[in-house]
Amino acid sequence: MKTTNFNVGLLGHVDCGKTTLARALSSISSTAAFDKNPQSVERGITLDLGFSAFLWEKPQKEQQQQQLQITFVDCPGHASLIRTIIGGAQIIDLMLLVVDAQKGIQTQTAECLLIGELLDKQLLVVINKLDALPAEQRESQLEKLRARLRKTLASTKFGKEVPIYTVSALVGTNIEQLRLALGAACEASQRQLSPAAGAAPLLIYVDHCFAIKGQGTVCTGTVLQGTVAINDTVELPMLGERRKVKSIQRFRQPVDEASAGDRIGLCVTQFNAKLMERGIIAQPDYLKPVHAVCVQLQPIRYFKHPIRSRSKLHISVGHDTVMANLHLFRDEATQLSSFDLSREYEHVEELLPQQAMDSGADCIFALLQFESPVLSTLGSTLIASKLDMDVHSSSCRLAFWGRILWQTHCINYKRELLPQLRIFKHKHKESNVQRVVNPNEIIVQNLFKKEANRDIYVGKRVQLSTGETGHIERTFGQSSKVCILFRDGLRQETLEQLKSERAKEVRVLLNCKKYIFNKQAGLFQ
Q: In this protein, which residues make up the domain named Tr-type G (predicted)?
């Protein structure tokens, strides 16, 4: 009998009953299920991803039985563990958003909803802890909560028609109905899964890693794409090492191979498990460490802080969350949403929340330079966050997201590649005329600071506020003066004004551009 795996993520605010719900729904548990981590037991909250499952069987038209294994990914709800939540959300096919019947939507409930929206996950909502509501008020309180949930969902890509189920995981109320609904939803979604996932190069997100004496190192994780079989050679790209697959288990049952969607334990020839507590296993030569990427910035509407160039953000890609330096830029000429390293882009100093709301972020790109490399592919989704904000704050910490349009494996990219990235700043200088030499020549003072290198501006075009255009012919004297030449001469009315009391009204304007990653290129117009 064929068994197909489908991953369902349980996400929600801390203490909404996700782990209790996973236990109530499951009939199979893994070594990382139901808060077995000693620290989880001590603190009474989920600290890491937990995995459990149940089997859903449905007759097929051909009178055969197809077995569907529904694997639950129990994500922590505590605010400080948002990076683990994002990592867990990337490996799921369907998201179960768990809401406390008494508390309703809380801060992490909203953040989890956003993560599901960004990662384009199918959604079901579960209101848990029915038993905590007084019996005589239960239905009226549930109706109010459903209305609030539908109003919130209506403002998201999920829409207000998302199925909402009510359960008590603790006493078992409506658990069987939820199990049936999950089976039907997963079975329907199976028909929409792309067959390309199985044909793509192998990619496994590893969430736990440990050594077994005399056998090897076991990596537990989820196959995102491709297939893996016993005796295959796989790569640990971040460690730069390759290992042979000795055995494979799926929820403690030995199997010869696994494919996209499967939750597996992969035993490979031994390596130091401490070097890869969480990471990626891939087909050899498929992935290499990435040091910088460009994305088209998609602002998150609930983030109420400016997004600034030269700031640092937490960037989550797959299971990786690393710090990155940010530079914003836009294509001012064409407003294209595609990225081309050879095009010219304008530097953006900051994006304000109101600009993001008013579509001011259209065609704004973000260059992200990672402080430590990540493993990613073109088209991968990344999420930028400010995780150093107060975890007890009600403010959204997710700043923006985007899909990777460009990336580099070059460790010396700052010297070899960034100078090719033609991001410029506008340089604007303004002064007035000190004196007229003749109808074709004027002397200007204080267009530059005294310590500035005036020579780099020789030949640059300038314009008077009266309309005439000339160029800087040469520097003049030892101070900040320059001589400006007008080949067609100044108009008579301009000459007269410069000789009158209104001379200071004539402004000398110089506009240039300067590349921020290639200082050797100088100024250009």
A: 3-191
